[in-house]
Amino acid sequence: MQLPVADNWFTAKQVGPDVTLILEPHVHVLEQANMFLVQGRDRDMILDTGMGIVPLRPFLDTLRTDPGKELICVSSHTHIDHIGGVHEFDLRLVHPTEAEEMAAPSGLKSLYRDDMPARLIQTFLDAGYPPLDEVLIDALPYAGYDPRSYVLRGAPATGLLAEGDTVDLGDHLYEIIHLPGHSPGGIGLYERATGVLFAGDAIYDGPLIYDGPGMSVPDYLDTFAKLRGLDLTLVHGGHDPFFGLERLTEIMDYYEAIWRG
User: Fold this and answer.
1) Displacement of CA 27 from its chain's centroid (Å)
2) Which sign, positive or negative, has the C-alpha torsion 184, 198, 42, 79?
3) Taking 70 as the threshold, does the pLDDT of residue 252 lie above it?
4) Which of 164, 177, 168 is nearest to 228 (CA)?
């Protein structure tokens, strides 16, 4: 397959006070995860790190007001599209349940459709995602790049984040909310002062994936109950655009109706 060379591998857009959304637009929408840079008074945070096809850190530092400030890398969970660049950062935080997986990824580790289990591909199609092409990218990051050379490296956690822990950036304080269902160690970061939630893949405004390895509908139902109990104003999901409380409720109602039959 002949692919063009991308002019830029990453894009960036400010989506809130001190919050920048970073995307890899040439990755198939299924694996095109949201990455969030939050710049704080005392330290910055990068939430999730994409596929790791090319280094994220150099691009990230062009966005930061002070690239010399301490930078915390938080992984909402450990699927391929969320930990690709985790090895680039010195401070790496994840839920204890998925620390082993982040250190030594065992799931999907390829850019090629044919390397995916057939059942997993069908799960994606049943959820509503478009068919997968031979390779999960529609452009090369640079001339001569071989998609077969892709490696998901992972990295050991330097710290753990469980329910009730906090990530303090100085002027942004995020509470850790354990949100299993899509992933056993999925976490959200909730800023109680503003009602803003970074939800990872627990919920986003697109087809949710809930029938696969490490996934659990009963856990998802508990997660939705937990979300209904939070005072939320805005949700940044792990994919797709942000949304408000009304849309959050609609999404949860829709999936709960499916799961409860």
Assistant:
1) 14
2) positive
3) yes
4) 177
**Beta strand segments in 164-223, E:** 166-168, 173-178, 187-191, 196-200
Strand arrangement of the beta sheet that strand 91-94 belongs to:
11-16, 19-23, 35-39, 44-47, 71-74, 91-94, 159-160
Is the confidence at residue 1, as pLDDT, over 70?
no
> What are the helix (H) ranges across the chain?
57-63, 80-83, 99-103, 118-127, 217-228, 245-260
Q: Residue 55 contacts by C-beta under 8 Å, 6 or more apart in sequence?
A: 85, 88
Q: What is the DSSP string of 127-163?
A: HTPPPP-SBSBSSBSSTT--GGG--------SEE--T
Tokens of 16: 């809130």
69-99 pLDDT, tens digit per residue, is 999 999 999 999 999 999 999 999 999 999 9
pLDDT tens by residue, 98-145: 999 999 999 899 999 999 999 989 999 999 999 999 999 999 999 999
What does the pLDDT look like over 55-69, one tens digit per residue?
999 999 999 999 999
Classify burial at 189, counting beta carbons within 10 Å of its beta carbon; exposed 0-12, middle 13-18, buried 19 or more: buried
Q: Which of 194, 104, 116 is nearest to 151 (CA)?
A: 104
